[in-house]
Amino acid sequence: MRRIAKSGFMIGILLFILQYPSAIAQEETSNRQMETRRRSISIFPILMYDSDIGFGFGGKSIIKNQLRYNESYDLTLFGSTKGEQWYAFTFSIPDFEIRHGTRYPVAFDVKLEYDKILKSNFFGLGNNSKNNDWQFPREFMKIEFILGHAFTEHIFGETSLSYNHTSVYDYEDINPLMTPDVAGTGKKLTSYLTARLCLDTRDSQINPHKGWKLSFDSDCAAKLIGGDYNFQRYRLEVSKYQGLFTPAHTWAVRLWTEHVEGTAPYYEQCIIGGGWTARGFKADRFIDRALTLVSNEYRFPIYGKLGGVLLADAGRVYSSIGKINLHNWKTSWGGGLRYYVTNFVTRLDVGTSKEGTRIFFNFGHVY
Questions:
Q1: Domain 2-32+41-363 belongs to what topology?
Q2: Predicted model pTM
Q3: For the chain, first and last CA: distance in Å?
Q4: Tens digit of pLDDT for each residue in 305-320?
Q5: CA-CA distance, 195 to 3, in Å (whole number)?
Q6: I need a surface site. Which of 31, 131, 182, 235 has the fewest CB within 10 A?
Q7: What count of Cα atoms within 13 Å lies in the side-chain half-sphere of residue 314?
Q8: Is there a contact between 135 and 121 (Cβ–Cβ < 8 Å)?
């Protein structure tokens, strides 16, 4: 598997070198004649509350196609009263939404992210881990390079190289569950190659109302490329979107299964809990080597750019993919608001479970 992932990345590099200059030359004329509606700037100030990070403040902006080459620049600057600092930048050419539903020869993305959380969680491993309030600092810096190629209008592949430096510290006198046999403590570098194949028939990446998305990811982390760990991670995600009552009302459902082999730090294993998975639980609430998760959302308009959502999530983690079953699933439910701007969606969710109620704020639909 490691050889396959490495070969896939090298093939992607060769594809980029051979095709990108000619692709730019071929499309330069049409790019300069692009409709002005694709040139846009979206800016959104952040003032919010999240159960995991407290009151937050900052801003997000996306600048799209200002140079007339379909490019986009996505910047987020954020801080919170519970000590989170989150800075993220993404450069894409072509932009995700512009290239969506087209047969493009090559795409290139660079993602930079820094996130420092003074109150991160660890509850132990397994689906029956106990809730606790022990929190400690965790800091990571990540850079990712992605090359993509669309085989058809709805089928594309990607290969990427990622470096994730994570520091977990000051936990010794705070969390007794952080023992030496828990991989991920201290300062560690995770380096991995990713191969991705995706079928995407949705009518939009930003705010889909109909269509399917089926994605298979294979990650290969290796000391050979500079990291501290060797492991493989496989993820299959299937999402379906369809109109309900009227085209403006959307039912969205997601099925997600994931499996990790090898020695992975706890924060790179399969995780349920937080604003992207089961929204009634704390971030990183359940961790193990495999997971299954089902999410449902009913999205509906309220007024103008403001929309609402009713949500339900259910899933659990397992010690291995062979032990997947339907027993003791963790469930949460709730609702939220969506505010739609030109280039992204602002999201506020309130989720409830047997362990309490959580509030999450972020950008983009969960799926």
A1: Porin (2.40.160)
A2: 0.87
A3: 28
A4: 999 999 999 999 999 9
A5: 12
A6: 131
A7: 9
A8: yes
